[in-house]
């Protein structure tokens, strides 16, 4: 037997109404649901259309964040069929972001100037700017919807709109507005980060340009400083050389020249005595020797005068820039009578004018002794730039005695030697004055080798060795 279904009563329909509303999203107090269902279906379609519009705006990032914000405001206005809608920031959030608000009117025109806003919209935006925002999306008694824009849990602005429909908003509508507000917050934050990064990039580029320019100017100033230092060094060297030339010229004029001239006068007087002495019949005729001595004295006097003139006369060369050039000049002065070779090893290092001048004088004194006393035919001047010192070595192939020369230095230190051997002591004192040592030994060519070893500036010299230890 088949049982016929019992029709639903009004009580059954009222009891089952919440279940139907939960399934369809339709809420109505009437017995028929078609109009409410139709409204829910329209909102669902609007929601899908809103999501589609938002996704389209997200992929057009080249238009910048403003394009996305305008799209969000338009979607919110269209979804709610609003009389107006606006997106605004609080006064403290993202201070560099412009514009601070965007609004759309009933005609679909976008507004970003406060003077063009209606009074109702102005009041709503002002509440957002002061931070008067609810914790979640709400609809006020006057129908205005306010949705906070949250970033890291803090409200940075709000999305406000005035729907035309008097019906309260459903949960899907609020969800759409929440999505729109969150997208707006992320877009604004991303835009602010982009602007900050762009500003920092421009600042970094500007700083790089400034640093590059400073480096270029520093390089130019460094070159100018080096050139000025070189000029000062040359000027100081020239001044020392000029002072030394004047001193030597004065000494030659006041002492040596006068002595030679006096000796010539004495020889001339003796010659006159021999010529005028009639009783000298038994004596050997020394007039030729006296004549020769007189001629030698005269020649020596002329040579001394030439040297004095050359020392007092200004040098033709403008620069004596380095110790190798000074030594080359010293060697050139002795080459007419002595085969002098100069050898420079290592990279020349400026030692200071006083040190280079002292070494040059040592070389000049040693070459003079070789030319005058050693009966040598060749001499080698060797200048070595080592890591911590400079070594000047003058060697010859003459017949000098290193042991006798070392003994002369010791006697001169005690004041027991005569004045003819002060040159060796002067060389030793110059080396010691620079923190170095002077050694005298046998050269490989068979003559004498004089070596002056001087530490470079800033290097503490090692223990001073005696000439005997250096010769070992």
UniProtKB/TrEMBL annotation:
Keyword Kinase listed: yes
Molecular function via GO: phosphorelay sensor kinase activity; protein dimerization activity
Region (Disordered): 452-472
One cellular-component annotation, GO: membrane
SMART domains given in the database record: GAF
SUPFAM superfamilies the record matches: ATPase domain of HSP90 chaperone/DNA topoisomerase II/histidine kinase, GAF domain-like
Keywords: Kinase, Transferase, Two-component regulatory system
Name this protein carries in UniProt: Signal transduction histidine kinase
Organism the protein comes from: Nocardioides panzhihuensis
